[in-house]
Design brief:
Shape: globular
Number of strands: 9
Bound molecules: adenosine-5'-diphosphate, magnesium ion
CATH class of one domain: Alpha Beta
Distance between the termini: 59 Å
Order of helices and strands: EHEEEHEEEHEEH
Helix content: 25-40%
CATH topology of one domain: Alpha-Beta Plaits
Low-confidence stretches: none
Strand content: 15-25%
Number of helices: 4
CATH superfamily of one domain: 7,8-Dihydro-6-hydroxymethylpterin-pyrophosphokinase HPPK
Radius of gyration: 17 Å
Amino acid sequence: MSKTRIQGPVRLTAISHLYAIAIGSNRPHGRYGRPAGIVQAAIARLDAEFGLFDASSIVLNAAYGAAGRDFANAVALVESDLDPIAMLRRLKGLERDFGRRSSRRWGPRVLDLDIALWSGGGFRSRRLAIPHPQLERRSFVLQPLAAIAPNWRVRGGLTARHLAHRLARRAPRG
Ligand code: ADP
Ligand code: MG
């Protein structure tokens, strides 16, 4: 029997959110090879696990901090009804699947998956802050983000495109 008329309010059982996931790698992986191959495999994995809405191209960036080796980076937009804490847990699981062991900040890592933004706006807990606290300073996130979601308002009404341009003017080499 098909319903032809909706009577009364419609209850949504699952609310879908959009997440911008910042992907980074600067260590080779036995199966996926160089960092760019790992980022590509991570995008495929996000597509399999969630709905992949869009993904930027993969960019290569010079090493920073204690990392020592060059990075491959990208941003993916995924759709999910997970809340931010559950999403972080899933991403940490994916990092482990790709063999990430070190939890040293800025250190070499096979795969880093950070939540840059979500469609719910701001989120803050002891273990998680969205927008990502370093977002405005990271051209390796802002540039790919601006390429696929230029009009996403990040913070204080400023769009990804605006922030990417602003950072590029301040630090042309990222
Ligand atoms: P990095 O800062 O280099 O990404 P980690 O991946 O080891 O370092 O992250 C350290 C911790 O940062 C995570 O375990 C997580 O609890 C916390 N964190 C806070 N905000 C975020 C976010 N937006 N996305 C991912 N991790 C976050
Ligand atoms: Mg991280």
